[in-house]
């Protein structure tokens, strides 16, 4: 018997990769196809191997091995082998094809901060010879070599920029003032900002006090500041009376940093300012009689404006050709109790006519209020005054000549300070008295000037034998049992200006 043996080479499969890119990203779908150039695809069953081990848990009739979604664990060398269905004959094992899915690692792995360095590494479980490209976010533009990005093969080193914190205002901040903080990071965009206070790891929340807007944090009503709000000091370059047509310059000294503006008030400090300047001086040129009166200043900065305290008051007396007049109050004091009668009148030196009492409440200009009674044209009397009758009073002629103004405070509390409504002449005595609404006898009282206690008097009154400019200021008194009076300004005029 003659045996004839025919030897046929087993077919060699070829593996193709779809997509054909040399770089596959995590999350993509990948297909490996096993082509056996012998017979039809349906004649074979297919086995897939990764690094020599069966990659698929069973032999499949599908010549395509699909991975979706791909991740770093799928990276490696793949081969396939076919088994003919008709006779279980195996093909040869294909050449390996590499599935390159890079693995990105970061060092350090925790949170990083501005100014630190971060190292990214693109790892491939294959042999060398790869070229690496780096991308940020969803951008299709390759990260370029720069001061912040250093590329070296499979490694990208990022030097994070230093964040700069700015504050506005840059100088001392006062309690209650608004503060704006800004986090500036140059050369980079798309930052998200978180704000922290002190050593706390809790993020500053959005609230009525803290307003966050991207790189900016606004703090309203700063409360952790120990700096006391300054009391500006107002002065004039004209100690004597001035004549119409001349000029007067007022100076507001407050020892403030740059960035403040100055506000100027006439007749009452809580009215709308008559001027606003970027410097601490205010000049009234070609002055008129109507420009005369009491002036105050304050300083402010920010938006909305944060103001200092009001300054002391300075009198500006303007002398013109009109007849002189003065406003007289009876009883002669700046403060009065509610429901306690007082009157105001215009004392005209030459008995000229056309003088009327004027009144400014901080909102409007009025003549003798409608609730008051008028006597002899020049006098206004009120029997039951209210706190709303407080204000600035002066006399004005038909030709708009004005007297000096006086401030009147009507108080609904139990204690007032008896102080002169008109300026005290330098060298004259000054007596201040703490008065109680229902007790005419003297009260034991503390007396204060510009917020500082001067002395305690069991008699309820204090006397300065001879006043000078240093005694000018804001006075009030306090009775330990009865309460505290409002504050009144005491002005001192140089001797020789008794008519001022």
UniProtKB/TrEMBL annotation:
InterPro entries: Ig-like_dom, Ig-like_dom_sf, Ig-like_fold, Ig_Fc_receptor, Ig_sub, Ig_sub2
Coiled coil: none
Region annotated Disordered, chain positions: 68-93, 477-500
Keyword set, alphabetical order: Disulfide bond, Signal
Disulfide bond is among the record's keywords: yes
GO cellular component, one term: external side of plasma membrane
One Gene Ontology term of the molecular function aspect: transmembrane signaling receptor activity
GO biological process, one term: immune response
Ig-like domain boundaries: 13-98, 161-225, 232-299, 323-411, 413-493
SUPFAM superfamilies in the record: Immunoglobulin
Top-rank lineage group of the source organism: Eukaryota
PROSITE patterns: IG_LIKE (PS50835)
Matches recorded under PANTHER family: FC RECEPTOR-LIKE PROTEIN 4, IMMUNOGLOBULIN FC RECEPTOR
Descriptive protein name: Ig-like domain-containing protein
Biological source species: Denticeps clupeoides (denticle herring)
Lineage per the UniProt record: Eukaryota, Metazoa, Chordata, Craniata, Vertebrata
């Amino acid at each position: 018997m003659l045996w004839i043996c025919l030897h046929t080479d087993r077919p060699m499969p070829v593996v193709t990769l779809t997509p054909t890119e040399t770089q596959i990203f995590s999350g993509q779908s990948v297909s490996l196809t096993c082509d056996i150039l012998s017979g039809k695809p349906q004649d074979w069953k297919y086995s897939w191997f990764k690094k020599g081990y069966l990659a698929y848990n069973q032999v499949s009739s599908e010549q395509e091995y699909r991975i979706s979604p791909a991740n770093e664990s799928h990276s490696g060398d793949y081969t396939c082998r076919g088994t003919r269905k008709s006779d279980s004959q195996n093909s040869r094992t294909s050449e390996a094809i590499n599935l390159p899915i890079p693995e990105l690692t970061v060092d350090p792995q925790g949170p990083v901060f501005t100014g630190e360095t971060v190292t990214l590494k693109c790892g491939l479980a294959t042999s060398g010879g790869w070229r690496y490209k780096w991308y940020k976010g969803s951008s299709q533009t390759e990260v370029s070599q720069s001061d912040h990005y250093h590329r070296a093969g499979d490694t990208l080193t990022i030097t994070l920029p230093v964040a700069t914190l700015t504050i506005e205002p840059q100088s001392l901040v006062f309690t209650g003032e608004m503060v704006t903080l800004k986090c500036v990071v140059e050369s980079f965009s798309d930052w998200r900002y978180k704000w922290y206070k002190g050593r706390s790891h809790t993020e500053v929340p959005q609230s009525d006090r803290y307003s966050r807007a991207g790189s900016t944090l606004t703090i309203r009503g700063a409360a952790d500041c120990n700096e006391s709000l300054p009391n500006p000091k107002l002065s004039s370059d004209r100690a004597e009376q001035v004549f119409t047509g001349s000029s007067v310059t007022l100076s507001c000294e407050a020892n403030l940093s740059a960035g403040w503006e100055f506000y100027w008030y006439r007749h009452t400090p809580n009215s709308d300012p008559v001027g606003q300047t970027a410097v601490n001086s205010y000049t009234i040129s070609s002055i008129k009689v109507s420009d005369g009166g009491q002036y105050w200043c304050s300083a402010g900065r920010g938006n909305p404006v944060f103001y200092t305290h009001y300054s002391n008051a300075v009198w500006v007396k303007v002398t013109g050709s009109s007849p002189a007049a003065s406003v007289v109050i009876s009883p002669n004091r700046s403060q009065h109790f509610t429901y306690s009668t007082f009157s105001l009148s215009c004392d005209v030196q030459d008995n000229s006519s056309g003088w009327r009492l004027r009144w400014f409440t901080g909102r409007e200009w009025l003549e003798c209020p409608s609730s008051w009674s008028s006597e002899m044209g020049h006098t206004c009397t009120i029997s039951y005054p209210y706190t709303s009758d407080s204000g600035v009073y002066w006399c004005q002629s038909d030709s708009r000549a004005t007297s000096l103004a006086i401030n009147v405070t009507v108080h609904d509390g139990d204690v007032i300070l008896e102080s002169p409504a008109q300026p005290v002449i330098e060298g004259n005595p000054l007596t201040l008295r703490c008065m109680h609404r229902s007790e005419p006898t003297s009260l034991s009282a503390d007396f204060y000037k510009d917020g500082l206690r001067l002395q305690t008097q069991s008699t309820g009154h204090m006397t300065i034998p001879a006043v000078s400019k240093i005694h000018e200021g804001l006075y009030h008194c306090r009775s330990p049992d009865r309460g505290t009076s409002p504050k009144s300004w005491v002005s001192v005029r140089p001797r020789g200006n008794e008519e001022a």
